[in-house]
Amino acid sequence: LFYDQPLPAVEEKELKETLQELIGQGKKVILEQKIDPSILGGLVVEFDKKVFDMSIKTRARQMERYLREPANLDSL
């Protein structure tokens, strides 16, 4: 779990419960927080070789790519 600042205990508990529901009861969720201010906010969750990137940094990159795409005015 990468976060831009330490996660409050209540939010950590809720995130752990949500992740437990996602992976099922056969596995145990152990959160390891890593603080990374470069993500600018949000969080990045890595588990089972999967990455859920909900950081502001990644969303900003996605928006930049979208805005740089040529506009298709034929569909209007």
Automatic annotation (TrEMBL):
Keyword set, alphabetical order: ATP synthesis, Hydrogen ion transport, Ion transport, Membrane, Transport
Superkingdom of origin organism: Eukaryota
GO CC annotation, single: membrane
Cross-referenced InterPro entries: ATPase_OSCP/dsu
Chief subcellular location: membrane
Gene that this polypeptide is encoded by: LOC110748418
The name this protein goes by in its record: ATP synthase subunit O, mitochondrial-like
Cellular compartment(s): Membrane
Pfam families linked: OSCP (PF00213)
GO molecular function: proton-transporting ATP synthase activity, rotational mechanism
